[in-house]
């Protein structure tokens, strides 16, 4: 049966934006084309291809994994089920990092738990003079991050391993950034929505949500230069606990930054000089 795009869109149970994204993928066209050509007849093979993607979405698979990419800080990043789907919230971490190295020439930067590489690659592209190193304990994630760096033309070094346990050298970084797993392992959200499809090790530390943050804050003084800055992303209710971790570790100028909803989502601190 022949169907126009308009009829196919009207018949789809998906929200209009998601249906558009899937049709863009199937037809290989931009969104404006879909709108201008919605009276065109669709080939049966294209309708079948759309229905396959639609069924995956209806089964709950995140749209970013179906499409294989997601925008972050104005750039398009490859994503696979091996990595966390980039969140707009993480742009706050990048902004905090960029401010921290604003006055440092050729800064040495470390991104712990790089996943798809969004933070490290963005910092490297926004500050081409920076020497950026990115680590992860997932080889599959490092593979995705390396592809993103290559496609986007960012120069950085990658290390595999558990947080600082990757021969990083000591006291050399002007900036350490991290968006670690910080969801409490008992949080029911882990079994809902997109989170069901994302790597569990990228979401939760398997404990109270602060275990990896503790390890990152505790290890930072051995790797930061005097005056070096640590910026970490954390959950909406963790800012006070994370500030205490920073203070206990001897950081100065400890402060949390709020996202657009006014929630403290990133905490930073400076190593005394
Ligand atoms: C919340 S995801 C963040 C990914 C990416 N930085 C982002 O913002 O989208 C946390 C990342 O930390 C990595 N990770 C978890 N435990 C780790 C560990 N012990 N050592 C190094 N990386 C770890 C995970 O593999 C995952 O890629």
Automatic annotation (TrEMBL):
<dbReference type="InterPro" id="IPR050320">
    <property type="entry name" value="N5-glutamine_MTase"/>
</dbReference>
<feature type="domain" description="Methyltransferase small">
    <location>
        <begin position="101"/>
        <end position="187"/>
    </location>
</feature>
<dbReference type="InterPro" id="IPR002052">
    <property type="entry name" value="DNA_methylase_N6_adenine_CS"/>
</dbReference>
<keyword id="KW-0489">Methyltransferase</keyword>
<dbReference type="InterPro" id="IPR019874">
    <property type="entry name" value="RF_methyltr_PrmC"/>
</dbReference>
<dbReference type="GO" id="GO:0032259">
    <property type="term" value="P:methylation"/>
</dbReference>
<dbReference type="InterPro" id="IPR029063">
    <property type="entry name" value="SAM-dependent_MTases_sf"/>
</dbReference>
<dbReference type="GO" id="GO:0102559">
    <property type="term" value="F:peptide chain release factor N(5)-glutamine methyltransferase activity"/>
</dbReference>
<comment type="function">
    <text>Methylates the class 1 translation termination release factors RF1/PrfA and RF2/PrfB on the glutamine residue of the universally conserved GGQ motif.</text>
</comment>
<dbReference type="InterPro" id="IPR040758">
    <property type="entry name" value="PrmC_N"/>
</dbReference>
<feature type="binding site">
    <location>
        <begin position="113"/>
        <end position="117"/>
    </location>
    <ligand>
        <name>S-adenosyl-L-methionine</name>
    </ligand>
</feature>
<feature type="domain" description="Release factor glutamine methyltransferase N-terminal">
    <location>
        <begin position="6"/>
        <end position="68"/>
    </location>
</feature>
<dbReference type="Pfam" id="PF05175">
    <property type="entry name" value="MTS"/>
</dbReference>
<protein>
    <recommendedName>
        <fullName>Release factor glutamine methyltransferase</fullName>
        <ecNumber>2.1.1.297</ecNumber>
    </recommendedName>
</protein>
<feature type="binding site">
    <location>
        <position position="136"/>
    </location>
    <ligand>
        <name>S-adenosyl-L-methionine</name>
    </ligand>
</feature>
<dbReference type="Pfam" id="PF17827">
    <property type="entry name" value="PrmC_N"/>
</dbReference>
<dbReference type="InterPro" id="IPR007848">
    <property type="entry name" value="Small_mtfrase_dom"/>
</dbReference>
<dbReference type="InterPro" id="IPR004556">
    <property type="entry name" value="HemK-like"/>
</dbReference>
<feature type="binding site">
    <location>
        <position position="179"/>
    </location>
    <ligand>
        <name>S-adenosyl-L-methionine</name>
    </ligand>
</feature>
<feature type="binding site">
    <location>
        <begin position="179"/>
        <end position="182"/>
    </location>
    <ligand>
        <name>substrate</name>
    </ligand>
</feature>
<keyword id="KW-0949">S-adenosyl-L-methionine</keyword>
<keyword id="KW-0808">Transferase</keyword>
<feature type="binding site">
    <location>
        <position position="163"/>
    </location>
    <ligand>
        <name>S-adenosyl-L-methionine</name>
    </ligand>
</feature>
<comment type="similarity">
    <text>Belongs to the protein N5-glutamine methyltransferase family. PrmC subfamily.</text>
</comment>
